[in-house]
Design goal:
By secondary structure, this protein is α/β, with parallel strands linked by helices. The chain is built from 20 helices and eight strands. α9 links the parallel β6 and β7. α1 crosses α4 and α7 packs across α9. About 6% of the residues have low confidence.
Length: 454
């Protein structure tokens, strides 16, 4: 297939994406002139076409054309008068990965774990902003937020999100993705420098080709770059070239940009150019959902009491890896000590060394809410909802009172657990029960019974 036939094929497909008027105006009189070095040169009739195609249709052009060729081209639009006097026309049959763009990638060749996707990432309030930002970058790499800087403690899902971005881009485009740790980046640089012949810059050129001739660079644990002065300098130049070329950069760290004191100021300044997103430890609800997801493949998972799940969630509140370890330990202990049957007693025994003063099972807002709902036979959604009927409102006030008495949560924080209510409403409910307890012996009995259940 020659360039004319290839471009005709492209035009047929682009027609399906745009209106007939847009096609006749902007595409009908274009032609493919050449493909060389990963650049496709397209001849347009007027200067206006150059500007309009670049600003409004470039993404569509690249996606359709690269899908046809199975490679990754960038596009240049020129007038006939701007062409070089002699320019070789490359036949599609001659295309190779050395003379054109990047071929289709696999997750493995990009150093990605194919199981880390957006679908397998558990979303909650603690990571929703980072997840949304990651999706935006994956859908528009180099255009949405560049760089994207994710930070948070170990085990909270930063690496999962980075792999998910890379996997999404590979699956939905022909862009070349590379995931590495900062340690790997430094090691590659040291190898290139130490093994480079003074009269032959092949190793250095290979290093630069690996890290600069890509569309998406994903680099993990950037904090470890702090001990490598030369590595920082090389990453600075790599960052600049990629960013200047509108290539996407995604960085992760266990601390914020401002806390990366060992990195040069010029690097930290650049990390702040795009978007920074923090991932905090998962809240109780997210921890419960994560546990349910993790145990769903276990036999008789539906028979595991909710009390067991809540207990594990309560005493493991720092990160997801800690949760995974606790789940494994409970199931292993149950298998050895109780014929594989998981009960609350077994979970408590298996994790007894995990219990600390700051994570006490009985003092949990969600558990209190559930027990109050069971006692008064109302739905948890009604307890947190807008209903003001007495059969719902009074139990809600009791639950608020118990949460205040039995947990260390502040009034504003408690408001978030009760449907986003204002802290003044929470205070009012608490004080109402306080007053009633002084004169209502029946309420005193109810409160004592609920405390015993909790």
């Amino acid at each position: 297939m020659n360039t004319e036939a290839l471009w005709n094929s492209f035009l047929e497909k682009i027609k399906d994406r745009i209106s007939p008027l847009s096609y006749d105006t902007w595409f009908k009189d274009t032609k493919l002139h050449s493909m060389d070095g990963g650049v496709a040169t397209v001849v347009v009739p007027m200067i206006l076409h150059k500007k309009h195609l670049e600003e409004n249709y470039l993404d569509d052009i690249e996606e359709v054309f690269n899908a046809i060729t199975g490679t990754n081209f960038t596009f240049v639009f020129k007038l006939e008068s701007e062409l070089e006097p002699v320019q070789r026309i490359v036949e599609v049959s001659e295309l190779s990965t050395e003379t054109v763009g990047v071929p289709y990638q696999s997750s493995a060749s990009a150093n990605l774990n194919s199981e880390y996707t957006f679908d397998t990432f558990m979303v909650g309030d603690s990571n929703r902003f980072a997840f949304t930002a990651a999706r935006a970058v994956a859908e528009k790499p180099g255009k949405a937020y560049n760089p994207l800087f994710l930070y948070g403690n170990s085990g909270l899902g930063k690496t999962h999100l980075m792999h998910a971005i890379g996997n999404y881009i590979i699956e939905n485009s022909n862009k070349k993705v590379l995931y590495v740790s900062s340690e790997q980046f430094v090691n590659d640089y040291i190898y290139a420098v130490r093994n480079n012949d003074k009269n032959n810059y092949e190793k250095i050129d290979l290093f630069k080709s690996k890290y600069r001739n890509i569309d998406v660079l994903i680099i993990d644990d950037i904090q470890f770059l702090g001990s490598a002065t030369k590595g920082q300098e090389e990453f600075f130049h790599t960052f600049n070239q990629l960013h200047d070329s509108n290539k996407q950069i995604i960085i992760a760290s266990d601390r914020s940009v401002d806390d990366l004191k060992m990195l040069e100021d010029r690097l930290r300044t650049r990390f702040n150019w795009g978007l920074t997103a923090n991932i905090t430890p998962p809240d109780f609800e997210l921890r419960v959902n994560i546990i349910k997801k993790k145990i769903s493949h276990q036999e008789a998972a539906e028979d595991i009491p909710i009390e067991v799940i809540e207990y594990i969630a309560n005493i493991n509140d720092s990160d997801v890896r800690q949760l995974e370890g606790a789940i494994t330990r409970v199931f292993a202990y149950a298998l050895m000590m109780n014929r594989g049957i998981v009960t609350l007693e077994i979970a408590v025994e298996a994790l007894k060394d995990k219990v600390s003063e700051k994570s006490v099972f009985k003092n949990d807002v969600h558990r209190i809410q559930r027990i109050v709902c069971e006692y008064f036979k109302i739905d948890i959604e009604d307890l947190k909802g807008k209903k003001r009927s007495k059969d719902v409102n009074y139990p809600r006030q009791i639950a608020i009172y118990l949460c205040r008495e039995m947990t260390n949560e502040s009034f504003p924080k408690m408001g978030t657990y009760f449907g986003g209510r204002d802290h003044s409403t929470i205070i009012s409910a608490y004080q109402r029960i306080q007053r009633d307890l002084k004169v209502n012996s029946q309420l005193q009995t109810v409160i004592n019974e609920l405390k015993n259940r909790i």
